[in-house]
Fold:
Amino acid sequence: MKITRNKWQNFIKNNLTMNTHKKHGFWHRYFFSLDHKDIGFQYMLTIFVMVSIGGFFAYVFRMHLAYPEMEVPLFGLVTNKDYNMLITNHGLIMMMWLALGMLLAVAGNYLIPIMIGTDDMAFPKLNKLSYWFFLISVILMISSFFMKRGGFGGGWTMYPPLSVGDFGYNTAYTSFKDRFFTANTFVLLAITFEFIALLMGGINFFVTTLNKRAKGMTLTKMPMIVWMINIASVLFMFSVGPLIAGAFMLLLDINAGTGFYDVYRGGDPLLWEHLFWFFGHPEVYVILLPPLGIIAEIISTNSRKPLYGYKFILNLTLIAAILSMMVWAHHQFVSGIDPRAATIFSIFTIIISLPFAGIILAYIATLWNGDLKINLPMKWAIGAITLFTLIGGFTGLYLGASVFDIYAHDTSFVVAHFHYTLFPTVIFGSFAAFYYWFGKFSGRELNKFWGNVHFWLTFIFFNGFAFPLFLLGLAGQHRRIADYRQFEFLMQDPLPLYRQIATISAVILILSQFIFIFNFFWSLKRGKKVTSDNPWESNTLEWQTASPPPHGNFAVYPEVHHGPYEYNHPDREDDFLPQNKK
Amino acid sequence: MNTKITWREIPQARLAMWALIAGEFAIFGGLIVMYTLNRLKYESWGEMAQHTNVIAGTINTLVLLTSSFFVVKAHEAALHKNKEKVKMWIWLTLICALLFLGIKSYEYYHEILHGFTLPGTQLLAEGKHVETMYWSFYYTMTGLHGLHVIGGALALFFVMRHATKTEKDYHRIEVAGLYWHMVDIVWIFLFPLIYLIH
Amino acid sequence: MNTNQPEGLAHEIAVPKKEDYHGHPNYLIIYISLLILFAITVFASLIPNPLVVFIIVFVISIVKGSMVLLYFMHLKWEPVLIWILLGLALMTLLFLTLGLYPDIVSVKPYLVTKP
Structure:
């Protein structure tokens, strides 16, 4: 008997169910799918939109800094207020949506279920809800740019009293409508929704990893990146709690006239600083851990050697995660915190470099004497470790000492430091992941030639952009200043030249990313089909299934017999041994 | 049975709920830490605490403690798949929830009537600027807690309906009950810190 | 219990045969103990010294909270992983308290005129 369906039943069948039929509607693929790979893709597309906005803002304000009188193409004249809005939202978008989104949501969604050998997340519908909350947060964030008084311009750190307005003392805005429909409120709401999305996602990752691993996969036989994403999610979950409370208090200060951060009423802006950085510092380790995991996978596969010191790296990561909750006030050395506390935070900040140094040493040991395959993912991975450690990490040590930080705080030195820690890990790490796993998840290859062009342009011009900022910072150039022409000492040679070098490099850097975007989308549709399911000859489980993996990931669910880093065992002929082979 | 289970044997839903509870402890705990530290700093808040309705708060605490007891009895009934008892205990819990919200609303009504509001405008006008923050914390903490009471009650209601209608998924009652206990624990800390320290 | 596992996958992770994994304390006795502790708390609040009251009520709250956790939420029979999760939350709050203490409690209230 033929089953007839009306068009609504067909819509539901094609779009809303986790069916395994080949034909999926547009809405299924981009909105309703419960498959973790589709959800990862949805997050990815949304984040591409966000990073384009954040990158565009960077282009505009860098052009303004180097050529202050110029009307910036595609934007116009940059007023001081515009400048504040641009730098604030650049920071917010990159830190909150790009870094957390790409490295937790996208990486976790794509990689965790398949690398542990199961069909999907523990809670697919919760996963779907997480994405929808994320999407709402993006809509709220973008709406904030269109508010009556413009986008938020108080720095990505949103310190009160600037972020509050006037605590309701003046009659400037008395109606609730005037206070609610401001960028401040919408940015806070956006961040709240995003945090809820990531909390739900984190619980999903955690439960999936613990409960759904393949037979034989004990916790210490998991690929390192699965550990890293889970530790990052748990660290995120606990460090964000007080900030959620504090953000709610800030929302009330803005909209309900409370005075949590108002000195007159017994509050303190310093309280916000503490709450923000209590999360803000673990946050940067939350976004460091997944790239370290990505790099671990790539360098072990491409050195044809086991990852050196699996348990060593794991233990150091756990120690670092706990230490990361004890260092936050190094962002507040000049805010008037208790100087005795500053000493303690300074000491812990310098100590926390040790576990990460240990991890990097383990990575170097992995590469040492390996049969190195310097392919594209390897270039990104090695570039990431080098820049992060040698420049980002070392300048972090300088800044961790409060005596130096008092001079360097809020200067471009800090901007250079955090770009050298964030960019190599978040951006290079993400690209390493893209070039490594694109073939697996799409079934087609990214173009190698243009990938190499992309790599070298990014590498060279990232350094061209960020390095001069160290020199500018040491010369006394402060950040978050819209117009350096007011300061004569900052207009003396060679400082304007450094600003121009930084800007031109930044512009070329941003333009180079279009090569990747084009490569990505062109290859999705028209790229060369992959010839092998396991082109890198890697051991982890995702390479032992089809490219792209079907719904449910595996035709036959694997049983795991050993760890993921069995490369070049002397007793074996092949230089690799997949986890599901004896 | 007193055998200790290993972590491998926790069902997914309960593990996820414990993770959520730990996260919620971090959020509420953050608020409570901030309130407590400020309370230690401002002795004048003690005078404000006198204006809270201690009797109402006491009744509310009794109500929540009792509801915790009811919900664990509901879990016991669910273990035996006893449909009628489950319904009875959960309905008793929900009545407690409604009672709690009702008493809280009564308290809010009278406090607002006396000028103790969230922004504390009247207090500001009287020159009591530091004391306004006591009330800001009071409404924020109890308000957030109240929202969680509503959420927990709704969860218990829907879980009970599903389990008794379809005669399956009784284990969800324990999971929803865990959330309810978390809400109770938060109140166990909130009540004395806000109402009782003069 | 639905574990969402693919069919036919023999698992190292055991699915508990009983949902009844925990002991059965006498819930009524626990409840009455909680009520008694609560009564002590209320009477303690009558002590004139606020600091003493604060310490007593805080300690009793911890005891009450622990009883709800251990017996009503069956934490006593849960594996150590759950204890670790809760311990991490506690650790977070501890670090937060230590970090905020110097800048809240030991700071003299500012004398500020109305803006």
Notes: Chain A has a mean pLDDT of 93. The CA atoms of residues 60 and 239 of chain A lie 33 Å apart. The first helix of chain A runs from residue 7 to 16. Chain A is about 65% helix and 0% strand.
